[in-house]
Amino acid sequence: MEIVEDPRGDTYRAVYTVRLAKAIYVLQAFQKKSTRGIATSRRDVDLIRRRLRGAQEDYEVCCAKND
Q1: 32 touches 15 (CB < 8 A)
Q2: Distance between CA 18 and CA 15 in Å, rounded?
Q3: Which of 17, 18, 32, 35 has its CA 20 to 30 A from that of 1?
């Protein structure tokens, strides 16, 4: 899921997941600076993927075992 805020033409995005039942992890927040279209940079997408894997591992250690 993605939240997009666009005040005064400056676009900000926060990408997070809610797939984990007992936790919400903010994976990345950034100001959108692309001059070509609406695409999110490959660097940001790769970082979000790595952080999602880390959040899933953290969730298994912290939250899932406490069910």
Answers
A1: no
A2: 10
A3: 35
Sequence letter at residue 9: G
| pTM (predicted TM-score) | 0.66
For residues 24 and 17, the answer to whether their CB atoms sit within 8 Å is yes
Which residue has better confidence, 11 or 53? 53
Tokens (6 digits) for 10: 């400056």
Query: In the structure, what pLDDT confidence band is assigned to residue 27 with cuts at 50, 70 and 90?
Result: confident
Buried b (16+ CB within 10 A) or exposed e, 33-62: eeeeeeeeeeebeeebeebbeebeeebeee
